Amino acid sequence: MGRLARLSPDIRQYMVVTGNYWAFTLTDGALRMLVVLYFHDLGYSPLAIAMLFLFYEIFGVITNLVGGWLGAHLGLNRTMNIGLFLQIVALSLLLVPASMLTVAWVMAAQALSGIAKDLNKMSAKSAIKHLVPSEAQGQLYRWVAILTGSKNALKGAGFFLGGMLLSIFGFQGAVLGMAGALLLVWLSSLVMLKSDLGKAKNKPRFQDIFSKSRAVNYLSAARLFLFGSRDVWFVVALPVFLASEFGWDHWTVGGFLALWVIGYGFVQGIAPRITGSSRGVVPDGRQAMKWALLLGLLPAVIALSLTVDWYPQVILLGGLMLFGVLFAVNSSLHSYLIISYAGEDGVSLDVGFYYMANAMGRLTGTVLSGWLFQEYGLAVCLWVSSGFIALTALISVGLPRIRPAVSQSA
């Protein structure tokens, strides 16, 4: 405790923000896996399962737009705590008797969860901008990578946790335990987060939710297709394919996806070393384009192996693990660039707009994942993924080749 007390206030706030984000992410990953596996067991089609997440993604788009404006007005501590509270409410809605767990009811609960997740994420990412000096770009890159990487590692742990809790305690027992744990985190967060964190000095108008920064707009468009390229096969198609074609049980499906996301998060955390930050290299638009081009080859190779039935299991599993490594580097680069590009005052506006595009990509990928897999199979999902990544690389050509001056759009 003495060592903790000697840390600077900014470091302590960073630890509170990160711990808050970790706890939320663990329950979010577990809930997603619970819903996918539970409703697959009930006989829902892949498209129907994808529809359960439709409102989750739609409200994520809306929340990121409005949430950035709210963060600038209310402070990031309040938007983060509101997100935590809404996740507790969403989990509580799923504690009704099994006969009441209709598609409409679950979609409503997922809508609240989508609002909660994006309020929490936008707040955590925006807060870092206020805790790192503007001239310390290398430190900013490392802190963003650590926050993002650790979050995704815990999301992977959440996938495993969801599969394990479903097998041991059943759907309602698992949800009840997560709601209770998150309630304790929320109460602690109310006490420990600074009240003025991220509050804008000049209150933005509501129309300022749309970014006026060219760099932010290009990066947001690239982010949309990047995350669509992942979720078009990952959200519904892959877990259902593993369960139906390979005969994997809940533990095995949850475990594989957990390892994928944990490894992905670990690579995100060390992405600055991979891209040359240890040599003083701070990434720009050129690096974002090159890493996207490299990533785009993998889904095409995997899809080809499935199409011609050439060692499909080995190439699918091995290729997706390698995809996770390259996707992690791409995602980490984007996460640093948006914090770097965002305006100093009201940073949550630019970050909210960017994560709106992120949520739009997830929404597109989620819907396509269920529909394409149901109609055409996993190979087509992967071909579409490769096409989305090609668009990401093309858009990245328009990103600044050197770090631009700090945006004043907010």
Characterise the protein shown here.
- The structure is a single chain.
- The protein is globular and about 50 Å long.
- It has one domain (2-396): Up-down Bundle (Growth Hormone, Chain: A), CATH 1.20.1250.20.
- The protein has helices spanning 2-6, 9-41, 46-52, 54-74, 76-93, 103-131, 137-192, 214-234, 237-244, 250-274, 285-307, 312-341, 347-376, 378-396.
- The protein contains 14 helices and no strands.
What is the number of helices?
Answer: 14
Binned strand content:
under 5%
Largest sheet: none
The run of helices and strands is HHHHHHHHHHHHHH
CATH topology: Growth Hormone, Chain: A
Radius of gyration: 20 Å
Query: Low-confidence runs (pLDDT<50, min 5 residues)?
Result: 404-410
**Overall geometric form:** globular
* CATH top-level class: Mainly Alpha
Give a short summary of the structure:
Helix content is 79%, strand content 0%.
How is the topology of this model organized?
Elements: H1 2-6, H2 9-41, H3 46-52, H4 54-74, H5 76-93, H6 103-131, H7 137-192, H8 214-234, H9 237-244, H10 250-274, H11 285-307, H12 312-341, H13 347-376, H14 378-396
